[in-house]
Amino acid sequence: MRSKRLIWLFLLPSGLIIACVVFYPFLYNIWISTTNMNLYHIRDYSFQGLRNFREIFGEPDLYYYFGKTVIWTGVNLFFHLFLGISIAMLLNGRVRGRGVFRALLILPWAMPQYISALTWKGMFNYQYGSVNLILRKLGFAGFEWFSNEFWAFLAPIITNIWLGFPFIMVVTLGGLQSIPRDLYEAADIDGASWWQKFRHITLPMLRPVLAPAIVLGTIWTFNNLNVIWLVTERGLPADKSHILVTYVYKAAFTYYRYGYAAAFSIFIFLILLAFVLVYMRQTRTLEQAY
Amino acid sequence: MRKPSRARRIATRALLYTVLVVVTIVTLYPIVQIFGISLRPADQLYSTSLRIVPEDATLEAYRQVIFEKDFFTWLRNSALVAITTAILGVTLASTAGYAFSRFRFKGKKQGLVVILLTQMFPATMLLLPLYVLMNRIGLVDTLLGIIIAYTATTLPFCIWTMKGYYDTIPRDLEEAAVIDGTTQLGAFLRVTLPLSAPALVITGLFSFMAGWSEFIVARVIINKQGLYTLPLGLESLSSTFQTEWANYAAGSVIVCIPVVVLFLLLSRFLISGLTLGGVTGRRDRFPTYRRDDISVRLQTFPA
């Protein structure tokens, strides 16, 4: 078979499905964002230009939620990388039962996210949740996790750190295995310290593997709806725990402000796009993928 | 080269294992916890005990979930959805990923960017339009509707995974096969595909998990009780959370078992299969394959 025909045969089915189920809705969403579609105008909605976008920028909590989203993404990513890389390095050495540790530590990734999130929500319960029970055993009073802005935001962060580090750990383990041993042997002969080896061999060699993982991790964390929505029970206390995505989800599916939510979704997408483009340009992630 | 003293080596080892064990315990705790709750008898649903296995542990909640709810309907629907999604995902991603890895064509770069872009769409951006679209062509309240939605949404990541893996397989292997008389398609099917087993396994696993665990899209597209998948069924238990805490926990444990078992069985593929397109030219993975080996391969599978 000629390779021209093969390209078509191989790309067309995927292309069609993605076009219909992802791109058509994307375009349709742009149209909705310019209308007044909402609970009162489900079918008889009409075009109203950029009013929804103006409304977004008039939103008093916009910067608050934006700030939370940035903190949420940054803190999660930091701990995912820190834990993921350190555990991977511990497991990459000569460790007895390495396979067992590795398999057990992957488990948070294997569980369906909504189940993990609801389980953690239960664990943060003031009276019966095991987090507070353990804290009390240790002599602390325990926290009212969901009645205080700070703690209510910390709870989903803890949950999501738990959920996300296995992905980075697995990617790092794969990367570590591809580093040739002789580089370290050469460094040993030169009398390099542990830190020097890490800084000058391990990190640079891991970069090509970690860069795309960081892009994906950022995107997934930035847009993570499940964890905040379920753990804080729709943004407790009083809508203070939202990030941008959960806020817009509430606007769409609790208040039925479809046009507004559509516009807000585009706004979120554009912020994320800007983030990722800058990051990828700096790390040249995409060039490496060709 | 400095040699650390024996005492210091032992101390480092001890510290290493302590850290690993502590991290593992903390990681497993929530999982163990939900298992513990599922064993609670009705009078201990609200308990301040930290015991993992409660006093008077009982399997009553499992019995209730399995025999008194529509559990088998949910299970059948979920299995159907997840398996179909996995088969579609592997087929489509292995071919599309191959095209992106091996061919030069117009719009290739744009295609890859577009694939990455789809990952950035917030869920809310697709949900409502998707619902309207599915409603128009009669896919609301059908399992086919969510199968299509799941396939499309996981496909970009799967294509990326497959492309990344193909990139690590030297092209010479295919070229050799083509010289030995097979077509490009034949080279793909008989040489590259078998060598990509780890990535194929991972792609299948992710597509399966998407179908097995997804909740939000299913919530929007499926309303008929008879078409509930496991997540929808479990949620219907958790809406009466107060009374069905243990049932919900038992249901969760049952839902987790297949994916956890799959993950454990496939965890060794996870590490080699997920290169994310980052490791190019890693030829050392196939040090022993030379043209002769490929000829042997081709002879065992005559074209």
Going by helix content, strand content and strand pairing, the class of chain B is mainly alpha
Q: What percentage of amino acids of chain A are in beta strands? A: under 5%
Low-confidence stretches of chain B: 279-303
| Number of beta-strand segments of chain B | 0
What does the average pLDDT of chain B come to?
84
User: What can be said about the biggest beta sheet of chain A?
Assistant: none
**Ends distance of chain B:** 56 Å
Give the SSE string of chain B.
HHHHHHHHHHHHH
* DSSP summary: helix tally of chain B: 13
The arrangement of helices and strands of chain A along the chain is HHHHHHHHHHHHH
Blueprint (SSEs and pairs):
The complex is a heterodimer of chains A (290) and B (303).
Chain A: H1 3-33, H2 51-57, H3 62-92, H4 98-110, H5 113-123, H6 130-137, H7 149-177, H8 181-189, H9 194-222, H10 226-231, H11 244-253, H12 258-283, H13 285-289
Helix pairs in contact in A: 1-12, 2-12, 3-7, 3-9, 4-7, 5-7, 7-9, 9-12, 11-12
Chain B: H1 6-38, H2 60-68, H3 71-102, H4 108-118, H5 123-136, H6 143-168, H7 172-179, H8 184-195, H9 197-213, H10 216-221, H11 230-238, H12 241-273, H13 291-300
Characterization of this structure:
The complex is a heterodimer of chains A (about 290) and B (about 300). Chain A is mainly alpha-helical and about 290 residues long. Chain A is built from 13 helices and no strands. In chain A, helix 1 crosses helix 12, helix 3 runs parallel beside helix 7 and helix 9 packs antiparallel against helix 12. Chain A is globular, with a radius of gyration of 23 Å. The mean pLDDT of chain A is about 90. Chain B is mostly helical. In chain B, helix 7 crosses helix 13. Chain B is flat and about 70 Å long. The termini of chain B are far apart. Classes of the chains: A mainly alpha (about 290), B mainly alpha (about 300). At the A-B interface, helix 1, helix 3, helix 4, helix 5 and helix 6 of A face helix 1, helix 3, helix 4, helix 5 and helix 6 of B.
